[in-house]
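Re: the request from the purification team.
They wanted to know what the chain is likely to look like in 3D before they choose a buffer screen. I agreed to run a prediction and write the result into the notebook, where they can find it.
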Amino acid sequence: MKRLFAWLLMAVMLITAASAESLIDDDYTDVPTAMTQDSVAELLATEECLIETLQPDEESIALLNSVYKFVWEGKNRPARYYDVPTQEKISALIGGADIDILHMTEAMRLQLTGAPENPVTATMRLNVEYHVGQLIVVVLGIPQGGGEYVWYPYRGRVETLGEIKWDIPVEDWTELCQQPISFHVLTDRIGPRGGRLWGYEEYHEETPPSFSKDSGDVNGMRWWYSEWGEKIEDDFRVWLVELTEPMQAEVLRIGEHVADGKPILDYFPWERKAEALLMLPADVAPADLVAYDIIAMMDENYKDTYGDVNVEVVFGTAYDPQKAMVILAGFANEDDPDMPFVEWYVLRAEALEPQNGQDKSDSVEIGLKQLFLPWMEEKPLMLVVMSEVLDAE
């Protein structure tokens, strides 16, 4: 009976996987939608010192949520999140340029250890293609309690593709190594397909291109220009695809897990489960979550280090904005359907406010990480959309 139930569950999941009707909009968030420690390949320090990445905790997730709401929901620029003295230091680090050209691409926890006698050079190698000469500001923060931080901004540099370096004075290191700290990266938009984005102009047409940036504005589209006045075509888009055979095999494994009476969240690696729970309200338990949809996405023309992207997906399922949501996403092992996924990622998800007086919404906002957006050009990403149990219709 359990196996029969698993097969039935698989059939239901495959039906719901096809029920996502469309993507109606996508937009750069200018702030990470989830913690980015997964993007770090190596972290080194001079003077026999150590720097380690840490898994998220309640305090770091609370900070990320605060920055995300300030930038994405409040439509503020990321550098404005910091106190005025820190903003002034950041401005000085970039030669007095407008700090509003910066967006935030990394947010994680670090631990510094050691007692240097000279300034420490930190080197972070990432699986994200930061380009040589790219404008970088690293901001480290010491938590003070109550959501308050003391911020230490530094001018970063990229001398090798995907490698960020910055120097920390001895007196700063002594303060920063007392406890786990916050780490942010601010940068401008630069990628192999275009130059630095310095400004934009509006160009109005009757219909904007499908899935283009700011396509929610049906009256026009934006053309971006580099600092040299060259037009930058921003033709990035995301679309839905069918689940591959390896993905369907993974759905079956998930179904068998659930058929054994186990919470679906327990199927995933423990560190992903812990991170997902941190992104949910404290009173939500693993047993409270149900997978209502499983979909797959691909993209094209993503520009490296442009940051996370929020996509709005229209589902057949009517989600409730009052119910907590989270997504586990991963890439299937396409060479062997019987092997599990190589990696899973926790994504932010939120049902949008319903229209026309309805209680529920068919539209869900999903945050896609800059780490894997370039990979999605070559292979589809599978998303397991989970919500607290929805009330019966």
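For the purification team: Residues 1-8, 14-18, 192-232 have pLDDT under 50 and may be disordered.
Please add any questions underneath this entry.
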